[in-house]
Design brief:
- By secondary structure, this protein is α+β, with helices and mostly antiparallel strands.
- It has one domain.
- The chain is 36% helix and 16% strand.
- The N and C termini lie far apart (25 Å).
Length: 64
Amino acid sequence: MTSELTIEPLTPFIGAEITGVDLGEVTQKQLTGIRAALLKHQVVFFRDQTLNQEEHIHFARQFG
């Protein structure tokens, strides 16, 4: 996938869908964008991601 994130707000108040990222191979630049979107929208969604257990743990650890 491309390294450019697309962030689409779901409502005017909360939630956004993020596309343009493979969570199994997320870059530092993408993580920065995901963190910013999470802070701004409070909840983020990623569709059509397939992560094995190790990839899921690695991604989650990026957020503490």
